[in-house]
From TrEMBL:
Stretches the record annotates as Disordered: 240-265
Pfam families assigned: Rtf2 (PF04641)
Domain of life: Eukaryota
Biological processes, Gene Ontology terms: DNA replication termination
InterPro entries for this protein: Rtf2, Rtf2_RING-finger
Family to which this protein belongs: Belongs to the rtf2 family.
PANTHER family, A to Z: PROTEIN C20ORF43 HOMOLOG (PTHR12775), REPLICATION TERMINATION FACTOR 2 (PTHR12775:SF0)
GO cellular component assignments: nucleus
Name of protein: Replication termination factor 2
Lineage: Eukaryota, Metazoa, Ecdysozoa, Arthropoda, Hexapoda
């Protein structure tokens, strides 16, 4: 069976087949993931951050989503605070021109200069946030960042924009890292509480020791006074009999019992020597006082010039004369 003109049709022209589903452009998808925020799908803006799964975000968008929980998507539900993201230290590409060439990347590897466009695998360190190509990181044998010399471990290496399998690996690393951080925080708190308890114990012990020291010093001073008092009294007792014998007034009784001076007698003798106390006695007379002047004696009625007067005295007024 043929067609007009002697042509022979093929099978695909006669039989209708199912259309194949449209396939995504992998290059376009890769470039989109490396240049746009995973939260808002907008162009990445500095500062750029990453989560524990290796996805890239604009920090401003993440802060807005944390303040307004409705903006937070299910894919980013693991971000609960700013501790769950890390600032990236990116190296700018000097040959990048956004207006002319959109296929190139604005950032490159800090060690070997590969473009961070998705054609090569890139990793970041969670400890410091520096970004390298995986090829360059494998060449470095020491576990130190080649840019800032910060030490890191295998758990701190995060693959940026990895596949689904790599994302699951990053999730396990993130959980292990969070568990380690919680254990370190708990250890610090326990250490701090132990130091505080030891400090309180030492302070109480020091206060008790000072109290014991003060009590011991006071008791020692009391004992010293008690020891010194009998010695002085015995010395007085020894001196008194010797003085009595020297004066010839001692006897058998006085030798056996020493004479103790009376405190009241000593005090009364000292008071008797005071001129003010002498003037307060009844037998005191101004006229007989040798220290008083003649003018001062003439003011009183005991003076000779005042004995035969006919008028009243100015101090002791006597109406008998009026």
């Amino acid at each position: 069976m043929g067609c007009d003109g002697g042509t022979i049709p093929r099978r695909d022209e006669l039989v209708r087949l199912k259309k194949k589903p449209e396939q995504k452009d992998k290059d376009a998808e890769r470039q989109f993931r490396w240049k746009h925020c995973a939260l808002t799908q907008l162009r990445l803006q500095q500062p750029i951050v990453m989560c524990g799964l290796g996805r890239l975000y604009s920090k401003q968008n993440v802060i807005e989503a944390l303040l307004d929980k409705e903006k937070m998507t299910e894919a980013c539900a693991h971000i609960k605070s700013l501790k769950d993201i890390k600032n990236l230290n990116l190296t700018a590409n000097p040959a990048y021109d956004e207006a002319k060439d959109d296929k190139s990347s604005p950032y490159i590897c800090a060690l070997i200069g590969l473009e961070m466009s998705g054609q090569f695998r890139f990793v970041a360190l969670w400890t410091c946030g520096c970004v390298f190509s995986e090829r360059a990181l494998k060449e470095v044998k020491e576990k130190l960042c080649s840019v800032c010399q910060t030490p890191y471990s295998d758990e701190d290496i995060v693959i940026l924009n990895g596949t689904e399998e790599e994302t699951e690996q990053m999730r396990l690393k993130m959980e292990a890292r969070n568990a380690r951080a919680r254990s370190e925080k708990k250890a610090k708190l326990d250490k701090k509480s132990k130091l505080k308890a030891s400090a309180t114990i030492t302070s109480t012990a020091a206060s008790e020791s000072t109290a014991v020291a003060t009590s011991s010093t006071s008791s020692s001073s009391v004992v010293a006074e008690a020891i010194n008092f009998p010695s002085t009294s015995m010395a007085d007792k020894k001196l008194l009999p010797s003085s009595a014998k020297a004066n010839g007034e001692g006897s058998s009784k006085s030798s056996s019992k020493p004479i103790v001076p009376n405190k009241r007698a000593l005090i009364s003798d000292k008071i008797g020597e005071d001129p003010v106390f002498k003037k307060s006695k009844d037998d005191y007379s101004v006229a007989k006082d040798p220290k008083a002047s003649a003018v001062y004696k003439s003011l009183f009625t005991t003076h000779e010039s005042e004995k035969d007067q006919k008028r009243a005295h100015w101090v002791t007024y006597n109406p008998f004369y009026n």
